[in-house]
Design brief:
Three copies of one chain form a homotrimer. Chain A has a five-stranded parallel β-sheet with strand order 4-3-2-1-5. Chain A has about 140 residues and is an alpha/beta fold. Chain A has a domain of about 80 residues: 3-Layer(aba) Sandwich (Hypothetical Protein Ychn, Chain: A), CATH 3.40.1260. Chain A is built from six helices and five strands. In chain A, about 45% of the residues lie in helices and about 15% in strands. In chain A, α5 links the parallel β3 and β4. The longest helix of chain A has 16 residues. The first copy, chain A, is globular, with a radius of gyration of 15 Å. Chains in contact: A-B, A-C, B-C. Chains A and C meet through α1, α3 and β5 of A and α2, α5, α6 and β5 of C.
């Protein structure tokens, strides 16, 4: 495997912490010159709706009230949101974000209702065609 | 990495949405001719019990009532269940499903109590021996 | 990919079941001679605090009371905890555990407050520099 091999991410989760983890990993990989290909499914796709992308999202259940307070304190101190981190990652590197067509049907969304961070819609076989080399993550 | 490298999936989650995501990714990979090797742990293994495989399962907590309604509406409209999708994937490609022996002990299950979708039981070192090449996912 | 290629794990979750799954996969890979590199984020990092590492942790929500009872019964029967499994994995193989510097800030932790299982603190680009080859998991 080479250092410029792509990283493909199936982004499924719609919690703020997992979206932030995905965004930070994407920014780190992009900073190292690795292409990142994100495939949005289910609740992650829901979080990319244009009218929801700034909304407060839940955390993983194990976060508890203490974890919620920590995340809110960092946001109040000026931490970038996950969508801002992804926007920055797209500026510094090669980051492609595609919505899963099956999940578009599930959530009854049109592409025009998605935030411009999303580059397009594709099926799972198209995703795997580009994800055949390099590393693969499910978040 | 070659296009026919296997995809190995540690399938841990017992929610309907993550099982469906895993099944759809498996079917997509199988359609492209890639072998898929699934290793069932914990709550995913529990979902493959012969007497539970058709049962209604919870969703990820962030789905909320709106997400539940969307999933139920698609099922009512005739969407394949995750187990039907996996059955189809096994017909079109090379899909092997193994139960983790440690999780069998945890859940106190015998192989005869599992759905025939499950091909066998193996330990984690046997899993890694076959998963040493190709991509690896944890769902 | 070679059999001695590393496995890199972004360990995010702070539930007992996912930490145990990660520990068992790490021990299995280490037993086969594969180096394992673990990067602790969010609630997984929180679980490695020296004063919490033996504490009872929640399970994935889909475990339910039946799952909780199964996990508690196995622990009462003498099953190793996830931290003991990781300690053993470090004895038999090459297992490196790093805390994510961003998550250290989030949780307001100093390295001196972490269990000695943790070998150091690094940023996400340093993690990806070592994770550029081999398989990558997000748990």
């Amino acid at each position: 495997m080479n250092d410029d091999d792509p990283i493909s991410v199936v982004l499924f989760s719609g919690t703020d912490d997992r979206l932030q983890a995905a965004a930070v990993l994407t920014a780190g990989a992009a900073a190292l010159g690795r292409p990142v290909h994100i495939f949005l499914q289910y609740w992650a796709l829901d979080a990319f709706r244009a009218d929801r992308i700034g909304a407060t999202l839940p955390l993983a259940p194990e976060a508890g009230p203490e974890g919620r307070a920590a995340v809110d304190a960092l946001a109040a101190a000026g931490q970038q949101s996950w969508s801002e981190t992804l926007r920055m990652a797209k500026e510094i590197g090669e980051v492609d974000i595609q919505a899963c067509s099956l999940s578009m049907d599930l959530l009854n969304i049109e592409q025009s209702e998605l935030d411009p961070l999303v580059d397009g819609v594709e099926g799972v076989t198209a995703f795997f065609a580009t994800a055949s080399s390099g590393q693969l993550l499910f978040i």
